[in-house]
Amino acid sequence: MAKRLQACDMALEELTDFMKQDGVRVGVLDSTNSNHARRAHIRDALKSLECKVVVLESSIDKEEVSVYFSFHVWYQLFSYYRQNKGIRVKHS
């Protein structure tokens, strides 16, 4: 569990630095399989940004639906950023 918290904190630090850049309006943190305590930790860490935090949660029990959903969501997100060139996207 300590390694998961460490990874979460590293991602939060990177997200916070990114969100403080001029022109940045949206940040996405993938906290797949996070529990309620970790979500509370994420909210607390992001308080300094005075931003809205939205938690999206899904439960899919069919693999083919899961694969389609994952591809569709990421494709739509990529297309949105590509069309709106004024928005910065940080690639890892």
Describe, in plain words, how this protein is organized in 3D:
The structure is a single chain. This protein is mainly α. The protein has 2 domains: 1-57, no CATH class; 58-92. Helix content is 54%, strand content 0%. The protein is built from 3 helices and no strands. Helix 1 runs parallel beside helix 2.
Tell me briefly what this model is:
This protein has helices at residues 2-19, 36-46, 63-83. With 92 residues, the protein is mainly alpha-helical.
Radius of gyration: 15 Å
Number of helices: 3
Portion of residues in helices?
Answer: 40-55%
Shape annotation: flat
Tell me what portion of residues adopts beta-strand conformation: under 5%
Q: Pairing-aware structural class of the strands and helices?
A: mainly alpha
Please mark out the parts with pLDDT under 50 across 5 or more consecutive residues, or reply none: none
Total DSSP E strands: 0
What is the average of the pLDDT values? 78
- Overall number of domains: 2
Element order, helices and strands?
HHH
Distance between the termini: 24 Å
Q: Describe the main β-sheet briefly.
A: none
Task: List the SSEs and their pairings.
Blueprint: H1 2-19, H2 36-46, H3 63-83
Helix pairs in contact: 1-2
Properties at a glance:
92 residues; mainly alpha; 2 domains; 54% helix
